[in-house]
Amino acid sequence: MRKYGIHILPTDVLLNTATKVRELRKEAAYSQAELARRSGVSLGSVKRFENTGQISMVSFHKILYLLNRLEELDGILQPGENREEIEKLFTNT
């Protein structure tokens, strides 16, 4: 991974995420078919996700909901701690 630079690539994140979700699925003792049925995501989408990391955001959220991990997304992509700098952008000074 990271063949051409020091930063993680989007494809790396997709594959790492798919690997983690596969492990969570197995911990929950779900087959791919069972995960698909219970989450309302097609079996083809589950298989594609686990093999390539490609999945729609809606389907990804459905799977995380079933695996009781959806709330973990709430903590990501938060604005930085320096809110004063952001406030300056919106004031007329």
Secondary structure layout plus pairing:
Elements: H1 10-27, H2 32-39, H3 43-52, H4 57-66, H5 83-89
Helix pairs in contact: 1-3, 2-3, 2-4
Plain-language structure description:
With 93 residues, the protein is mostly helical. The protein contains five helices and no strands. Helix 1 crosses helix 3 and helix 2 packs across helix 3. The N and C termini lie far apart (46 Å).
Keywords:
93 residues, mainly alpha
Helix count equals 5
Instruction: Give the fraction of residues assigned to helices.
Output: 55-70%
Determine the strand fraction and express it as a percent band.
under 5%
The largest pleated sheet is described as: none
The unreliable regions are none
Along the chain, the helix and strand elements come as HHHHH
* Number of DSSP E strands: 0
Distance between the termini: 46 Å
What spatial form do the alpha-carbon principal axes imply? elongated
Tell me the Rg in angstroms: 18 Å
Quaternary organisation of the protein chains: single chain
Protein structure class: mainly alpha
Arithmetic mean pLDDT: 89
Question: How would you sum up this structure in a few lines?
Answer:
With 93 residues, the protein is mainly α.
